[in-house]
Amino acid sequence: MMRIGYGWDSHAFKPGVPLKIGGIAFDHPSGLAGHSDGDVLLHAITDALLGAVAAGDIGSFFPPGDARWKDADSSLFLQTALEEVEHAGYRISNVDTTLVLAAPKIGPVAERLRERIADLLSIEPGAVGIKAKTPEGLNQDDVAVAHAIVLLEKIDEDSLLEKMAAVADPEVEDVQMDDVVRKLVGRTAATSRHKPGFNTDDIS
Ligand code: MG
Fold first, then answer.
1. Three-state SS for 133?
2. Per residue in 104-149, pLDDT tens?
């Protein structure tokens, strides 16, 4: 069984603010204004992951009025979304993204972005698509927009049981018992997991 999720976000450029996109710091005269670090790409991916498991949106978990998230590293939001995916019993199949911004150029850092996002999501770089376009004809050169789409696949419980059986065999060394147990315990905990109320406010 598979599920799909889509996320979108936009932030305005502001002079003198550090620029962070996809978990990478850019040397650029302006950054993205926001309550958090303004990482438009990580916000879009976070919403795509939450949407794929129908767990609300980024504003549900991290209300923009909450002082705890002032200047927060957006990878924290992404980790929370990953936990929701795991508790729902899914893993990421692949992620595809598109950035729309006039500057800086994404091409020269696209590979670094791909590896950084793959690392944050604990998936292979080959499962991460990074694309960028300039906002031709949109008159939006002072804004960065990010779109993200994710595909999730259900974790096969039969294969988990096979792994557990393999763990019982001392000759099999490449199976991580902790990983198997964590996933099974997480599945049980999902039934009593607290879900915040729906909130369409953006983190910005
Ligand atoms: Mg945002």
1. strand
2. 999 999 999 999 999 999 999 999 999 999 999 999 999 999 999 9
